[in-house]
Write a structure and sequence with these properties.
It comes from Pseudochryseolinea flava. The protein has 267 residues and is an alpha/beta fold. 31% of the residues lie in helices and 15% in strands.
Amino acid sequence: MTPYKIISPTASEVPIIVSVPHCGVLFPDEIKAQYHSSLIESPDDTDWFVHQLYDFVSSMGMTMIHAVYSRWVIDLNRDPKSKPLYNDGRIITALCPTTNFIGNPLYTDERKEVDSAEVERRLKVYYNPYHEKIQELLQVKQKKFGKALLWDCHSIREYVLTIQKEKFPDLILGDVDGTSADSKLIDRTLEALNGSRYTVNHNHPFKGGYITRHFGKPAQNIHALQLEMTKVNYMDDAEKKYDEQRASQMRTLLMKTFQSLIDQLKL
């Protein structure tokens, strides 16, 4: 199975790619039995329903790519050489995690790491195709429009004590301290987000994962932004079910934000 799905534009095309790397919930047959079945029935570290939340983007002319497999197979937003993205003491799961975010072992043999040969296999089979497809999509957009923007979508629980003790804000825009996108695109995004009822942080505590850091090359007219949001903004209070009313309100803000970015990209 191809480790990603593509949703093509249904309206006039615009130079924006939307990536959802952590919404996958499947486990390949060749390794599925190695995991605790009780955990993979509902992989808790999933960015639940994010591809559903953003399913309007095709009607605005954007292309979406989203993951099929769980981040517990391989994390598509980690450095392929397992270089840590942060060094402030927070828990950082590996490229091929062996525990979930709260430290529970994922594998029945409670291994401490996935061996290097298996990591390389997963890179080749599951990780590289996703990143190669993003690169291809961005190059096509840049060739057609002279520029391209990658928007990387994420969600997180309100509280993850292994990362920070405080509740996360509603929305966190990451642009790697202003280096992954043109300042005008960043300003447009912040203006739209800050004009809402939601609490918004900029580059704290997340400034962008590997996807944003790797693909954002504003000097080459390829820009990348990451948006993290707490799950209660589109799910119920238990962070278990999709909430249509909350999701509708968030989608309204996202559509407004994207329209502002589309307008800026036309200049």
